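User: My instructor asked us to take a sequence, write out its structure as tokens, and then describe one feature of it. I'm not sure where to start. Here is the sequence I was given:
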Amino acid sequence: MNSKPAASRWRLWVDGCGGFLILSGDSWTIGGASPAGSSDVRIHSDLPRVAGTLSRREDSYFWEFAGAARPAELILSGHPLSMTGSASLIFRHPSPLSRSAVLTLMPPHRFDGHVDGVILADETLLMGATADCHIKAAHLGSEKVVMTRRGDRWLGKVVGDTELSELTVGQRMEVGEVEMTLEKA
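Assistant: Let's start with the prediction itself. The structure tokens for your sequence are:
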């Protein structure tokens, strides 16, 4: 029996799209990117070390301020999290077929680790040019790539293909027209 827990943090670099921090689980802390910060999602801004917690319950997401005695707020797709400070963190749940969601920041703020977005991953992610994709890749036209997680492994394929290919951590891979590199973060 393997007692090693599955990885919970990855970085995905997609040519022509940018870099993404992928986090698994159902609850994530969000805070400032101070050297002593320990939040799951760290933002270069005037946020405290831990501003709050974003959690997934069934198919919905909720925001709770750190240390606040008020109830968790339901977060709607396309809306910013109601955080204190100047950063505007936008939540997107692009596809009802996947419980995965995406966080993006409005300029001039940026995520720690030089990534362009954070993906709160469940089991599947979709890449393509349409609004229902977690990773927007305009150069794909009508082609879509799906990534699925199985424990500590990620697999990918072009939607419509039957065979999944394992994405080797640290190795540049090509799935359809998408070239990408997956790393443990």
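For the description part of your assignment, you could build on this observation: The chain has a mean pLDDT of 91. Try explaining in your own words what that tells you about the chain.
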